[in-house]
Amino acid sequence: MSLSRRTFLATPAGFGMAAGGQAFAANDHIQIATIGLGRRGLSDSQLALTIPGVQIVGACDLYTGSLLHAKEIWGESFFTTRDYREILSRKDVDAVIIATPDHWHARIAIDALKAGKDVYLEKPMIHDIDQGRPLIEAQQETGRILQIGSQFTSSIEYQKARDILRSAAIGKLTLVEAFVDRNTSLGATRYSIPPDASPETCDWDRFLGSAPKRPFDKVRFFWWRHYWDYGTGQAGDLYVHLLTSIHFMLDSLGPVRVTSTGGVRFWKDGREVPDVFLALYDFPQSDHHPEFNAILRLNYASGCKTDTLGFRFYGSEGVLTIQDGVSLTKTPREARPGYTVGGFPKAVRERFLAEYHRKYPDAPVSVESMRPEEEIVYKAPPAYNLVLHHIQNFFESVRNRKRPVQDAVFGLRAAGPALLANKSYLDHEICRWDPTNMAPAM
Ligand SMILES: NC(=O)c1ccc[n+]([C@@H]2O[C@H](COP(=O)([O-])OP(=O)(O)OC[C@H]3O[C@@H](n4cnc5c(N)ncnc54)[C@H](O)[C@@H]3O)[C@@H](O)[C@H]2O)c1
Questions:
Q1: Full-model pTM
Q2: What single DSSP character describes residue 116?
Q3: Where are the domains of the chain?
C-alpha cells in the first residue's frame, strides 16, 4: 500500500537525501512499527495513530507481556517479535519509533536508518557521547528523516517564550534556572514490575546487548533507568529536555563548561544514579543573547505537591517563567538609584544630597509618575498536547522530506553536555564542551 503508491520526488534543496528518498502523496498511508513497546513506546505509538494516514504494522519488545498487550490492542494477527532486525527487514515498514532503554538507542537507530527507515528516536539519542557522530553520519549518509523525541522544541508555549526572549522584553539576560521537582514514587521512576517477570518472559541476554553480562535481574530489566549500564541518570533522562529547551528558546548551540554534584538522598532502593542532581553550565554568547550561566536542578524528593518541570529566565528588566504556562513579569529599572547617607557626617551628607538632587530632580507625584507593573501569562489551549505536536512534526517531515524540528545534530548538542554532567558528577571534575564541533574539549 505505502511503498507502491509512493511518489518519487527530487531531493529538496539544502537537505541531504539519499538517491531514492521518497515523499508520500497526500493520501498515502505511512506504515510504522515500534521498537521498545514499554510505557513510552506505547503512548508514542498511540499518539501517532491519531494522525490521519498513519498505520502500525508491527512491534518489537523484549518482555512477552508487552507483545501480548500489543495483540490485545491491535489484534491477534498483529506482527510482534523480540528481534528488532525482523522489523527492519520488513518492506512494508516506512518508519520506526524507537523507545527502548537508552543503551540501545544509537545502535537500533543506525541500523534502522541503514535499512531505509525514517526514525522517531526517543531522547536521549545516545548513551555515550562517542555514539553521537556515527548517528549524525548515518542520518546524513542515508538521507532518511531522523527526529529526536524531546517534545519541547515543538511546543507552542516554548515558541512563545523564544519570541519573548528574542524581543528583549526582560532586558539583558543574566541567568537561567531550569528545574525538575518530583515527590512521588512514579516521579522517582519506580515503575510497576509485572508479577510474571522471569527469564522466560524477559529476553535478558538481548536486553543486556553490549552491557556487561550478569545474571537475570528483573529490577535491572524494568528499572533500567537506575543503572549506568543501561540508563543515563537524570542528566540523560531530564537534563536533555532542559538543555534542548534552553537551546531552542535562546538560539544557543550549547554550553562550554559544566560542573555537577548530587547524590542518592532519599530513594535508597539500590539505584546507582542520583535522585538529587545539580549542575552549573556556562553558555557563550549567541546571535540573540549575551553569555549566561544556567543552573539546572533536579530533586526526586522535593516535598512539592505536584511534579513539575520549569524554567526561569532572569533579565535586567524582568523575569520569564515557564511553569504551568509562560509568564512574563516586567520590572522596569528604577528611575533614580537609591542612596545610603545616614552614616555620613552632616556636611558630607548635605553635599551628597545636593549633588543627588541636582542630578535627579524631584519628580512630581502624578499619574505619569506611576511605574507600570506587568505580568502577562500565556497558556496553550487546554487540549493542546506538545508530544502529539512533536510527533505530528515528525510525520510532516516524513511526508514532505523536510528537515525535522530536532535532528541528530540538535540531539547531540543537548545529549553531549547532558552526559558530560554525569562525567563531572562521577569524576568530580569540571568538564568542557565544544558546542561548535560537538565534542568534549580540553
Ligand atoms: N520524551 C519523553 O518525555 C519521554 C518520556 C518517557 C520516556 N522517554 C524515553 O523513552 C525510552 C523508553 O522509556 P520507557 O519509560 O518507555 O521505558 P520502559 O522500560 O517502560 O520501556 C522500554 C521497553 O523497551 C524494551 N526493550 C529493551 N531493550 C530492547 C531491545 N533491544 N529491543 C526491543 N525492545 C527492547 C523493554 O522490554 C521495555 O518494554 C527511554 O529512552 C526514555 O528516555 C521519553
A1: 0.93
A2: T
A3: 7-153+390-400, 156-329+408-441
